[in-house]
Amino acid sequence: MKLLPGATLLVLHLALLLVVGGHAVPALAQSGAAAAEDEAAVEPVGESDAPVPTELELLEERLGEAGLAREASGSGGKGAGGDRRTFTLSWAPLLLLGETKVGELIGELRLGARGGVALVAGIGSAGVELADGSATTLTVYEIGGQLRWYALGRFDHGVQLGVELLYVHTGGEVGPSLTASGTGLAVGPFLGYKLITGFGLTFEGQLGFQSGFLSAEASSAHSTVDEEKSEIGALVNLSVGWSF
Asked: In 10 A of CB 9, how many CB atoms?
């Protein structure tokens, strides 16, 4: 009987953080130059000791005003969306493919601006081929957690560095008077990426490696056979969900 490791397999979908803001400078430069020409064309109505601002000074002033407006707009956007979100609930659809099918949910709670802690839980089934060529199905349970730090960006949009710990148990009857059970414990680091859209839809992926420690046992009325082993494998996660 072959028992699968209890680590979740995922696919990393990395994206780049883009900052767009340079397009405003040429337009502001033209606006500043035009304003300076208009002011120079106006004939003075009286003598004044006040210095006439140069084109460069007018441009710097307008750029400063634009920067303040952009900061205000950015802080307002965060307050209305991403930075107010404190919890993400997602599921891993790829785990429903293949012989082992697990419905896995991940709930992440925000810790400050750049941290998070996640609970991982799932239930499913695993197909097992027996020595006589027949097949049976065992129930699979998993529970674990993740610690995450957003090295680039923040909770709502950023690159993650983290570690995952996952415990898996499976077992059931595999024949007349014959039962089997297995447990697995996997731990490993990962690099991930997360994106929360403006209305809450969330995508994230993680890629890393993990060390797995596996134990399996089969018992009949007359004997018991057990086996233990360890292995290193890939940690791959791809999930979609909603943030609140």
From this structure: 19
Stretch 21-28: mean pLDDT: 37
Q: CA-CA distances (angstroms) from residue 180 to 1, 49, 102, 138, 231? A: 9, 96, 19, 9, 21
Residue 9 is assigned to a structural domain of this protein? no
Spatial separation of the C-alpha atoms in residues 26 and 44, rounded to whole Å: 30
Q: Decide: helix, strand or coil at residue 54.
A: coil
> Is the domain of 142 the same as that of 107?
yes
More confident residue, 58 or 9: 58
Q: How is 138-176 classified by DSSP, letter by letter?
A: EEEEEEEEEEEEEEEEETTEEEEEEEEEEEEEEEEEEET
Q: What percent of the chain has pLDDT over 70?
A: 66
The reply to whether 228 and 203 lie within a common domain is yes
